[in-house]
Structures are given as C-alpha cells and as structure tokens.
Amino acid sequence: MTGMDLLDPQASTWDLIAVQLRILRVRHGWTCEQVARTANVSRSHVSNWEAGRRRPRRAELVALDEAWSTGGLLATLHGYATDGYDHTRLGAYLDHERKAETIEGFNSDLVFGLFQTEDYMRALFEAGGVVEDVEAEVAKRLERQRILTRPKPPKLWMVLAQPALVWQVGDAAVMRGQHAHLLEISRLPNVSLRVLPVSAGWVSVPGSLSIMNSRDEEVAYFEAGRMGRVYERRPEVQQARVQLNNINARAFPERQSYALIEYTMGLFR
C-alpha cells in the first residue's frame, strides 16, 4: 500500500491538497521535476507532498496556482488547512508530537496524556463514554508515551494546574498511583513538571495548550472539551507563546511543585 492509498481527502484538508497536487500535475502532463522547479523545492519534496508525508508551504502552492491557472485553489485550501478546518485534528497533533524536539504545555483540568498511568487513562475513557473500544485507546496512548524514553527524546516543559491534581478520575487508588507516577516522571532528565497553584488565579486557558518545536516548524495546539485545533501561523503561535509565558511566570518552582503533588497524593486514602 502506497502513501497515496492512505490519504483521506474527505476527512483531511491536507490530504485533499495532496490529492489535488497529483491530479493537477497529471492533468497538465508535468513531471515531479517540473513541479519541483516551479515551486523551488527538491523532487523528493513533491513526492512527499503527493503521498501526504510532507506539507507544502503557501508560497510554494501560490507558484503552482499561477503556473496552472487554478484561480488560487491550492493556496485557498492551504488557508483552510492551517486555520484548522480539518476533521483529523488529533491525528495532526499527534504527528507534530512524534516529530517534536521540544514540547511546552499547560493543562487546566486533567493530567497530560503523555504522563497518565494506564489505570488513570482507562478510568478517564470509561467515564467519558466517547470511545467505543477503551482498551484499544489505552494501548494507543501507552504507545504514544514511548517518545518520553526513546533515543533522543523530546525535552518537555509542562505546567499542570492544581485542580487537575484533585479532580478525581477513577478511585482513590488510581489517583494515588497517578500522583506517584508524576513524581517518577519528573525525575526523567528530559522532563520539567511544575504546578500552577489556584492562588495564581485564572489564566484564561480552559483545557490544554501546547507548543511543539521540530527541525522544520513550530506549531501550537489548543484543546477544550472534545474540540482541538492546530495553529501553524506565526502570529497565532506567538500569541500562544505569550499565554504560556504568563502561566510559567505564575507556576511554582519544581521543588515546591513536587511537594504539592506529594501532599495531594496523601489526600487520596
């Protein structure tokens, strides 16, 4: 099965761009080399675009729109994709997470997915009543956590709001295990975990906010309830950076955060 066989243009705007690129190239009788010269990229870029393995930049698509007289079709689709009009938002987020070299994040109500214990995530999925196969989702999340200990793992700077420590998911044993796991994870050399105390006040970020950096790009992701959105435009990422900087300025230092986690763990008996 090729990369193109896995594309779903009805679910993903990025996949739609990939499909349209190939359709337009073939319709105009162009080779990948011709597309590459017009867009000022390498031939491998074009192959990866059409397979959905790499995302073209807007300027590259504008050049192709002009060459093929599309009326701005590709650039318009790029705008929809980068604005988050994409049903596979979680998939896009996880793709960025896997490639990230650094991840900075904040969560206001739940423990980060990368830091959840198996019991915590199972209780969370069962209480939510959204997923059909709880065990399959647990397995996926456990697999996702492997990035924490892989060779050359990403560096994580995470802030957890204090209410997430006391909002009970599962029974007391689940919560004790989760708190103990947070303390264990905080010992990893690539992890910094701090707590935002309730005394710091409301920071206007319901749900979660994260910024992920890789070699090629920096993106922000915001999620509240069951809705999430990836932001790739520089002004929006910069605004997310301002929000995270504000949260980081109010959070406890690491040592004080660990003491609070340990104290809260003792409340679940």
Please give a quick description of this structure.
The chain is an alpha/beta fold and 269 residues long. The protein is 49% helix and 14% strand.
Mean pLDDT: 90
How many angstroms separate the termini?
A: 52 Å
Q: Which CATH first-tier class of the largest domain would you pick?
A: Alpha Beta
Fraction of residues in H or I helices = 40-55%
Shape: elongated
N to C succession of SSEs: HHHHHHEHHEHHEEEEHH
Write down the domain tally: 2
Derived from helix and strand composition plus strand pairing, the structural class reads alpha/beta
Rounded to the nearest angstrom, the radius of gyration is 21 Å
How many beta-strand elements?
A: 6
Sheet of most strands: 6 strands, mixed
Give the name of the CATH architecture of the largest domain. 2-Layer Sandwich
Uncertain residue segments: none
Q: What is the fold-level CATH name, i.e. the topology of the largest domain?
A: Endonuclease, Chain A
- Tell me the strand order in the biggest sheet: 3-2-1-4-5-6
Q: Figure out the total of helices.
A: 12
**What is the percentage of strand-forming residues?**
5-15%
InterPro entries: Cro/C1-type_HTH, DUF5753, Lambda_DNA-bd_dom_sf
GO molecular function, one term: DNA binding
Pfam families: DUF5753, HTH_31
Protein name: XRE family transcriptional regulator
